[in-house]
């Protein structure tokens, strides 16, 4: 992996769909270890209340 392809940035409401999709891909039923489900509304509220970060690689989370 080339670290030059990864950009750490503050998340925004435009990232909500990708964050939820990524969390769903990491559910136990898909072989992941993430417990619980993220709802889009909860992600939006969290992003609006506190700084959150994303690390897209080549523009994709």
Describe this structure in words.
The chain is 33% helix and 7% strand. The chain has helices at 16-25, 40-49; strands spanning 9-10, 53-54. Strands 1-2 form a two-stranded antiparallel ribbon. The longest helix is centred in the middle third of the chain and has 10 residues, at 16-25. The chain starts with 8 loop residues before the first strand and ends in a 7-residue tail after the last strand. The model has no long low-confidence stretch (mean pLDDT 91).
SSE layout and pairing:
Elements: E1 9-10, H1 16-25, H2 40-49, E2 53-54
Antiparallel strand pairs: 1-2
Give the rounded overall mean pLDDT.
Answer: 91
Q: Which class best fits the helix and strand makeup?
A: mainly alpha
Order of helices and strands: EHHE
What's the total number of strands?
A: 2
Report strand order across the widest sheet.
Answer: 1-2
Radius of gyration, taken over Cα atoms and rounded to an integer in Å: 12 Å
Proportion of residues in extended strands = 5-15%
Main sheet makeup: 2 strands, antiparallel
Helix content: 25-40%
Domain count: 1
Query: Helix count?
Result: 2
Instruction: Show unreliable segments.
Output: none
**Basic shape:** flat
The span between the termini is 15 Å
GO molecular function: transferase activity
Protein name: GCN5-related N-acetyltransferase
Keywords: Transferase
């Amino acid at each position: 992996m080339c670290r030059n392809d990864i950009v750490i940035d503050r998340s925004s409401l435009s990232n909500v769909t990708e964050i939820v999709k990524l969390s769903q891909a990491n559910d136990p039923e898909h072989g992941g270890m993430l417990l619980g489900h993220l709802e889009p509304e909860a992600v939006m509220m969290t992003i609006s209340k506190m700084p959150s970060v994303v690390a897209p690689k080549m523009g994709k989370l």
